[in-house]
Amino acid sequence: MMMLSRTAAALYWLGRYVERADFIARLVEATIRLDALSARPAGEAAWQSALAVSYTDEAFAATGHPAVQAHVARFLTLDASHPGSIIRCLEMARNNARAVRTALTREAWTAINRAWWLFANRASTGGATETLNLVEQIKGETRGFEGATHRMMRNEATLLIQLGAAVERADNTARLVDVKYHLLLPAGESVGGAVDRDQWTTILQTVSAVTAYRWLYSEGLRPDNVIDLLVSRSELPRSLAACVEETVTLLSQLAKRTGLQGEADRMARARLARCQKARTPDIIVGGLHEYLETFITENALLDSAIARQFRFL
Amino acid sequence: MGSRGAFDEIWGHGGPDAPRAEFSTLSQWIADTPADELQRRQQSAEAAFRQLGITFAVYGDSDAAERIIPFDIVPRIFLQREWQKLSEGLVQRVEAINAFLEDIYGARRILDEGIIPPELILRNEQFRPEVAGIRPPHGVWAHICGIDLVRTGPDEFYVLEDNARTPSGVSYMLENREAMIRLCPELFRDFRVAPVDSYPDMLLETMRSVAPSGRARPVCVVLTPGHFNSAYYEHSFLADSMGVELVEAADLVVDDDIVYMETIAGRVRVDVIYRRIDDDFLDPLVFKPDSLLGVPGLIAAYRAGNVALLNAPGNGIADDKAIYSYMPEIVRFYSGGEARLPNVETWRCREPQALKYVLDHLPELVVKLVDGSGGYGMLVGPTASSEQIETFRAALIAEPHRYIAQPTLALSTVPTLTEKGLAPRHVDFRPFVLTGSDKVRVVPGGLTRVALREGSLVVNSSQGGGTKDSFVLLGDAA
Description:
The complex is a heterodimer.
Chain A: H1 5-37, H2 42-53, H3 57-61, H4 69-77, H5 86-99, H6 106-120, H7 128-150, H8 156-184, H9 197-206, H10 210-216, H11 223-232, H12 240-258, H13 263-277, H14 280-309
Helix pairs in contact in A: 1-2, 1-4, 1-5, 1-7, 1-8, 1-9, 5-6, 6-7, 8-11, 8-12, 8-14, 12-13, 13-14
Chain B: H1 24-32, H2 35-52, E1 71-78, H3 80-104, H4 109-112, H5 118-122, E2 144-153, E3 156-163, H6 170-183, H7 185-190, H8 199-209, E4 220-223, H9 232-242, E5 245-247, E6 252-255, E7 258-263, E8 266-269, E9 272-275, H10 298-303, E10 308-310, H11 316-319, H12 321-324, H13 327-335, E11 347-348, H14 352-360, E12 365-369, E13 378-380, H15 386-398, E14 403-407, E15 413-418, E16 421-430, E17 432-435, E18 440-442, E19 447-451, E20 465-472
Parallel strand pairs in B: 1-20, 4-5, 4-9, 9-10
Antiparallel strand pairs in B: 2-3, 2-17, 6-7, 7-8, 11-14, 12-13, 12-14, 15-16, 16-19, 17-18, 19-20
Helix pairs in contact in B: 2-6, 3-13
């Protein structure tokens, strides 16, 4: 039986929204840590950059609140009026999941439903500890959801959720690197220069890569190595290289099951070929910001091509 | 009217110390299980329902947009001989409903022979001239019926209402059973309970049996108004357990009188649609023109015999409350015998004499809107304030044809867990009857609704009612 177009779209977006909720949860977690470690006003800068990473600095400025933990953490997690908050991502994920209940297993659905109920009745994030607890719970539920999708039938439903997640993850990592790099390395400063150890650790924490970094690089914390890890090392599941690879694989598995292939596959394969050729030092010399900007634009184009290929309604 | 004098299905008339002979085991179980243990199990069931998202929305109540229906842990039990009798009555009634619909939208013999006043049908809002003359595939109209029953004594059952459009509640029958097996496994050792979990298979068989002829592997779907509908959980649950697609109107398109669904690989022909949306919203070309929910051209495809709709459009005429009072005549007319399941005595307020009687006896009667549902627009005389009674009196005088009235029955009770321990609470019962081209199937079970407030007779979930599992015993009870 062929899948409904509406179902396909809902599954893909379910994958994207869960991934986004998870990313923001990690971002908040890492920022709380950074804030705690730095002296003011560096703490404020930490929250400013968290907003920039999630593309929400302007929306937050409009609220008129100062960029301190109490306000930004609430804005990014519980603020129902802000479309990029975790609660809104979970709400969108749950709406999509509800609309395709029949394509999900009970386990996958209840993980989403539980995550949403966690937030639905919360008015305040409380202090740092409570926020960390909340974030930890959300990460638990999204991990539960991922686990449940991996135990669903290996069919196009699962593949579409994973495809949505891979496309979203690529976007999130690219933005994280772009914003943090800019912020941490003002014009004129060279990549090898003095770095704020905590700031770079924050980046690694946001993508759960602290341990991975220590395994792969022996010379301590260096910005160019962090860039290398997050952009080019496909061993790290949240690196651009890994997302690019995963997208190609998922699209070809979908093609095998559904017989549908086309522009999205070609774009994804071309991107993979480019990524495999690119070397980190060249990327930095050629301009990391430009590289990431192009990557984000291409990722959006790929997203549209996927929607066309699977006839999303 | 309170519970005093009502027949309790477990305790009989004698109270907890003198249960009905057949129910000594269950009565013992109730007595032996501490109330807080029962409470704990009940809460665990409700937590599971919330996690699964078995919720319903209450219309006009935005604060409680998503609620679960309270679940009561004490089951209601039917003995095999009781069930046997009930199910014969159900089959007879549903066969009559199908014959009636076939006749009303066809030859209209029942009108020609003067059994029912023609204007009652032809001027009824539930009568759909748009589908007159259409014969649904295999001549089945009411594929899925929910017949609401009440009980007043060991052998006294009455039909309160027929639901021949899109009766809901079957998911509760199935989920309640799942919860009971998990939470009270000991009951299933003590009793041999007929399984209900074959319902989705029976429904799918019913759907396939009415597919337009010549379609070797008919494609069946469930059509939902969408996930904001109060019964969405049930729609997805049924589609899921049958392994068919759950579609919304936007997924369907009609081309040259053939219905298709839009899939990632293009259009796929659809043969059988279990639609959970009202007639009004089926097809804007035929019914409500401003409906955004409908599928333009669906009725044309149905008229051409290219798709089966479950239930058939126009069925509202069979479960209309004004027609209800004629059901004994309808059953007699088509089956040639007396109705095995009696109606509740009903006064049709459109008839002047009946209206006079109703106005004179309002405090004793239940008055219902002919076109109301879900317990809205209803007066329960014995518990109503004098103000409510006067409001209804005025309404009855202004528009008598919109109302019927019935005596308040001494509805049976079943022991129910309350804050103060176990106490009798009034119940009703909705069994589900499936009619395919091959046969009529009655699922051994159904939805028991319970009025949780002491003495209350209103069991509707939108008015604070709860549900119970309903056991049908395979052997003799102990």
